[in-house]
Amino acid sequence: MLVRRAGEKGQSLQGFLLELVRAEARRSRNAEALRRFEGRSDGANDGEASAADIIRREREERMARFGLRGETEDG
Asked: Are the C-beta atoms of residues 2 and 17 closer than 8 Å to each other?
């Protein structure tokens, strides 16, 4: 099966296996990096607010601070 798959890709068996090992190493490093960041409490995942919600809230606070009404630039 591996010989056939290598042939389909125009590779030697050795080259094909080396490609598989390198791909697995990349996936393992990515998975390890994700595990390191899992469960961190650095503010990135605190709360349920989306980026749009945060921008909206900050805009409203800024407008209130400067006494502006809720008008948009285009209307």
From this structure: yes
pLDDT at 67 over 70: yes
Query: Which amino acid, residue 60?
Result: E
Distance of CA 15 to the CA centre of its chain: 31
CA distance linking residue 70 with residue 32, whole number of Å: 46
Please report, for the chain, how many H helices and E strands are present, in that order.
3, 0
Domain borders along the chain are 1-37
Q: Is 67 helix (H, G, I), strand (E, B) or coil?
A: coil
Per-residue HEC secondary structure of 20-51 comes to HHHHHHHHHHHHHHHHHHCCCCCCCCCCCCCH
Assess contact for 50 and 42: CB atoms under 8 A.
Answer: no
Taking the model in full, what pTM does it have? 0.44
